[in-house]
Design brief:
The chain is mostly helical. It has one domain: Rossmann fold (3-Layer(aba) Sandwich). The protein contains six helices and three strands, in the order βαβααβααα. It has a three-stranded parallel β-sheet, with helices on both faces. Strand 1, helix 1 and strand 2 form a beta-alpha-beta unit. The longest helix is centred in the N-terminal third of the chain and has 15 residues.
Length: 114
């Protein structure tokens, strides 16, 4: 399926949804796909998961380049714009946040809850 899609969008859901997200992150980190992954963070549904993954990066349990494999937004239009941008730059490199906000420390933003 991953060869016919332009991007993956994860909506709030249960354990199977979270498993799907982690599978996509794993596949991307192994080079099995280079499609952008987006989380539609409706009502902050994924806030705790994002914080958990940011903490895993800070504690060296997850590589920062794996954390950069997905994008999140509270708003559909913004998420679609970010995914469209990410499609233009597949593979490793600057994340959308780093490109849009040069010089800003994304890890510090996570610490501040941004």
């Amino acid at each position: 399926m991953n060869h016919i899609v332009e991007a993956f969008i994860i909506l709030p859901g249960g354990i199977d949804t979270i498993e799907g997200l982690f599978t996509l992150i794993s596949w991307a980190s192994e080079g099995l796909h280079n499609r952008p992954i987006g989380l539609l963070n409706i009502d902050g549904y994924f806030n705790n998961l994002i914080k958990f993954l940011d903490d895993a990066v800070r504690q060296n349990f997850m590589a920062l380049n794996q954390r950069k494999l997905f994008i999140s937004s509270f708003f559909v239009d913004e998420l679609l714009d970010k995914l469209e941008f990410a499609k233009a730059f597949p593979g490793p490199g600057a994340s959308y946040e780093e490109f849009a906000n040069p010089g800003r420390d994304v890890a510090e933003d996570a610490d501040a809850g941004l």
